Amino acid sequence: MTFPSSTATDAAAESADTAGAAGSGSAVVGRSPGQLMWRRFRRDKTGVVSAFIVLAFFLIALLAPVIAALYGKDPYTTYGQNQPGLLNDFGYPIAPNGGMSGDFWFGLEPGLGRDVFTQLVYGIRTSLSIAIVVTVITTVIGVAMGITSGYLGGKTDYVIGRVIDTLLAFPSQLFLIVFLPVVEAAIVLPEEETPVWLRYVSICVVLTVLGWATIARLLRAQVLSLRAREFVEAARVTGASPARVIFKELLPNLWTPIIIQSTLALPLYVGAEAGLGFLGVGMTEPTPDWGRMFQVGVNVYHSDVTYLLFPGVSMLIFVVAFNLLGDSIRDAFDPKTKR
């Protein structure tokens, strides 16, 4: 019986490896950048789990009225004050664990006796709606300012750059606390109560004014690098207008940092809105708000720790999941940044 020589065996193995590499290469070449990104993202189990968690939060916020209707409660009715036997003389739930029961899944709010579960669900709706509005507007303004500054250069770049530096130098939380009452005082008379819509708009406006500078600075640096590239110079030489260069040459190469920055910014705005509510300058009563739940929970945690537990755990899960999702999206778009 004759055995093949080691040389023949090595040659056959090398041929098989080459054929496999060629087949794999042709498969990769046949995929679009979007398909490659999606393939890398699906392989990231952390990113996939985070995406499902974030999607669940969005669905809860979107379907909050439906969930409340099926649950049979709302976040505005003071059940503890209307129904005897739910709160004691000090305003704390009589039942253990914050009053949790089959009727009130997460218990009752100390003092007013409102349902904690529906407050939490509608609080997600409030925080996410503000964060989404601010993220969209800041992204649009930041993209416009960053591309304009980086592409035009000169005095335009200098002026926009100084505005960006000024906004980034502001202590944002302190500015928000001081500026929100000033804005409302200029519109609402002292004897009148601040409308809910005005507080909502004021929070969105102030967060937007302070938020667009970060993405603008990032895109300005990207455009300064791209405008010296050969394909941009070729477009200019062929007589392309500045608008065509920006929308056809520059913007397609900026989608990755835009999407990544927006994904990482949204949980920051959720936290900022909750922080304003905790400090007393967020959404006004009776609008459910996570920040105000923290404020009440801090005052009653020595007697009812469960009321502080639910918004705290929810905020932690959402922010961590969204940040992990942002990291996974960044790695999927640009695998070279993967740690």
TrEMBL record:
<feature type="transmembrane region" description="Helical">
    <location>
        <begin position="264"/>
        <end position="285"/>
    </location>
</feature>
<feature type="domain" description="ABC transmembrane type-1">
    <location>
        <begin position="124"/>
        <end position="326"/>
    </location>
</feature>
<protein>
    <submittedName>
        <fullName>Peptide/nickel transport system permease protein</fullName>
    </submittedName>
</protein>
<feature type="compositionally biased region" description="Low complexity">
    <location>
        <begin position="1"/>
        <end position="27"/>
    </location>
</feature>
<keyword id="KW-0813">Transport</keyword>
<feature type="transmembrane region" description="Helical">
    <location>
        <begin position="47"/>
        <end position="71"/>
    </location>
</feature>
<comment type="similarity">
    <text>Belongs to the binding-protein-dependent transport system permease family.</text>
</comment>
<dbReference type="GO" id="GO:0005886">
    <property type="term" value="C:plasma membrane"/>
</dbReference>
<dbReference type="Pfam" id="PF00528">
    <property type="entry name" value="BPD_transp_1"/>
</dbReference>
<dbReference type="InterPro" id="IPR050366">
    <property type="entry name" value="BP-dependent_transpt_permease"/>
</dbReference>
<keyword id="KW-1003">Cell membrane</keyword>
<feature type="transmembrane region" description="Helical">
    <location>
        <begin position="130"/>
        <end position="154"/>
    </location>
</feature>
<keyword id="KW-1133">Transmembrane helix</keyword>
<feature type="transmembrane region" description="Helical">
    <location>
        <begin position="305"/>
        <end position="326"/>
    </location>
</feature>
<dbReference type="InterPro" id="IPR035906">
    <property type="entry name" value="MetI-like_sf"/>
</dbReference>
<dbReference type="InterPro" id="IPR025966">
    <property type="entry name" value="OppC_N"/>
</dbReference>
<keyword id="KW-0472">Membrane</keyword>
<feature type="transmembrane region" description="Helical">
    <location>
        <begin position="166"/>
        <end position="188"/>
    </location>
</feature>
<dbReference type="GO" id="GO:0055085">
    <property type="term" value="P:transmembrane transport"/>
</dbReference>
<keyword id="KW-0812">Transmembrane</keyword>
<dbReference type="InterPro" id="IPR000515">
    <property type="entry name" value="MetI-like"/>
</dbReference>
<feature type="transmembrane region" description="Helical">
    <location>
        <begin position="200"/>
        <end position="219"/>
    </location>
</feature>
<feature type="region of interest" description="Disordered">
    <location>
        <begin position="1"/>
        <end position="30"/>
    </location>
</feature>
<dbReference type="Pfam" id="PF12911">
    <property type="entry name" value="OppC_N"/>
</dbReference>
